[in-house]
Design a protein that fits this description.
This is Armadillo repeat-containing protein 6. Keywords: Repeat. It comes from Quillaja saponaria. By secondary structure, the protein is mainly alpha-helical. Among the domains are: 9-60, no CATH class; 65-162, no CATH class. 66% of the residues lie in helices and 1% in strands. It has helices at residues 13-25, 31-44, 66-79, 87-104, 111-117, 120-128, 136-149, 153-161, 164-174, 179-193, 197-205, 208-218, 225-234, 247-256, 259-268, 276-286, 290-298, 301-315, 318-330, 332-336, 346-352, and strands at 9-10, 47-48. A two-stranded parallel ribbon has the order 1-2. The chain starts with 8 loop residues before the first strand and ends with a helix.
Length: 353
């Protein structure tokens, strides 16, 4: 069994506002004091105030919050839609999504929590399902907003129940040539699957591994950085709510369809490859057993890694050197005992690293 689930106490925006109002009306506090007292009281009671708009009564209102204003307008547009978005609404939607992404990406603002608490994830998924084919700007904007809202287990759960995985994989499958859509889409995959075994499973059931291989074969020059992030996240056992992760089985599935060779290709290009570091980190996540390490070795992976380490040393690029040394160190023994690579001893690797 996993660790016991902790019950988190929450409060609605309406109940919070009413508590502040009672402090003013019944206890005679001034508005600022009433707000602070409500925050402190609820915090001491263990109430999670994430997503609550804390504003001083009389000075501002929750409805004036820019996140709420964006959501309200998007809801109006969505409610007026049938099965597909009209062209005349697309430009406004792009502006609203861009604004919402900017607000939710502001560090420490709490805006992403406000958006998700007020139905932001369900709304974005609903609109995404109605974006017509060819509306690339709207789709990229919507996917970026979706990624900005995936901040915790609750938002990931809403993404899952709203059909998010199927929507995103569908877009990735339909628009394999558009780098912007691919980068935005795989950013959603990475954010959604981080620390979430259920969503990792959902994406794998949708055969995202096969889709990734097909996209890698089409974009051999790289440029889709988030794709490598998605591979790494899908193969990382980072959900502490489960005891036995399935990611090692997923790594074997990736290996069977040739991921080792696809990830070694950027390494062969050397330091000039824009995907060099990302591909190496993804390759490290894939290398979970002797068989996969052997396939990496047979694909020329070890020689490529050692060349990159040598080149990075000559250029003084410590970042690249550390990444590749980490890859070799993870499975040092396995790499060094593969047929044809026995000359690559642990001592030789240590010398490089």
């Amino acid at each position: 069994m996993g660790p016991p689930k902790m019950t988190v106490r929450t409060i609605s925006q309406e109940a919070f506002d009413e508590m502040v109002k009672e402090n003013v009306d019944d206890l005679g506090m001034d508005p600022a004091e009433a707000l602070q007292d409500a925050i402190e009281t609820l915090t001491l009671q263990g109430v999670d105030l994430s997503g609550i708009i804390t504003c001083v009564p009389g000075e501002s209102d929750a409805k004036n919050n820019p996140v709420i204003q964006c959501l309200d307008r998007l809801k109006q547009l969505d409610s007026g839609l049938e099965e597909q978005i009209r062209d005349k609404d697309l430009d406004e939607m792009v502006e609203l999504f861009d604004r919402l992404t900017e607000l939710c990406s502001a560090e420490g603002s709490g805006n992403a929590a406000i958006a998700t608490k007020n139905g932001g994830m369900e709304l974005v998924c609903s609109i995404c399902s109605k974006i017509p084919s060819g509306s690339d700007r709207a789709l990229v904007a919507a996917l970026k907003t979706m990624a900005s809202l995936l901040l915790d287990v609750q938002s990931q759960g809403t993404f899952h129940t709203s059909g998010g995985p199927k929507i995103v994989v569908g877009f990735l499958d339909d628009t394999r040539q558009n780098i912007d859509i691919l980068n935005s889409g795989f950013a959603v995959v990475a954010s959604a699957a981080t620390g979430n075994e259920i969503l990792k499973q959902s994406f794998m059931e949708l055969k995202v591994d096969e889709l990734i291989m097909q996209i890698l074969s089409r974009h051999e020059k790289g440029g889709i950085q988030t794709l490598y992030d998605a591979i790494r996240v899908l193969l990382t056992p980072d959900d502490n709510r489960v005891v036995a992760s399935q990611v090692y089985g997923y790594a074997r599935k990736f290996a069977k369809i040739g991921i080792a060779g696809a990830l070694v290709d950027p390494l062969r290009e050397g330091l000039s490859s824009p995907s060099l570091v990302s591909a190496s980190i993804a390759l490290k996540a894939v290398a979970v057993n002797d068989e996969i390490c052997k396939s990496i070795a047979e694909s020329g992976g070890i020689d490529a890694v050692l060349r990159c380490i040598d080149d990075s040393g000559l250029q003084g690029n410590k970042t690249v050197a550390r990444v590749f040394c980490s890859l070799l160190s993870k499975k040092k023994k396995d790499f060094c005992t593969q047929d044809g690579y026995r000359h690559t001893s642990p001592e030789a690797i240590k010398k490089h690293c």
